[in-house]
Amino acid sequence: MKKYRLFSCLIIAVLFVIAFPVTTFADSSWVWISKTRPNDVLPWAAAITLIVEVAAINYIPKVHKLPKVFCIVTLANALSFAAPYLINYMVFVDEGFGFDKYLNNWPSYTVGIYYGIITIAVELPVVYNTLKKDVTSKRKLLLTIIIANVVTTVIVACFERIFCRGTW
Fold first, then answer.
1. Residue 167: helix, strand or coil by DSSP?
2. Considering the entire predicted model, what is its pTM?
């Protein structure tokens, strides 16, 4: 069973996404009741994410190449932070939303289960394939990347929900 643990966890995660659908509110409008929007929190979230992920990936699997790890994790995070915004924007551009309107009127928080899955899907191949030659335990590197991304996704989700308030 240990052999299929990662695959089993991935299947369970997908089932959770399907099992817990998003509630919709017909004919109601989302209103941000705080001045802070999720994109306002993004620079702070990105900084904390980089610190946590670089430290974890550099020291737990013992890469010990801080400049290289920093550059790779920064690139991977830039891609993974942009991916959900771009995917959601592509959906709403057909409804007449410009990018500024999308950022200010997007009717929910950015970070959730969907975001976490995209983050891991984008970052894991970039970081793992670049650093696997620099470690003795590829499994430890793989698990560290996944766990660090889950932890930072939860931190960013908490940031959004603490500092950005909205209601239907």
1. strand
2. 0.72
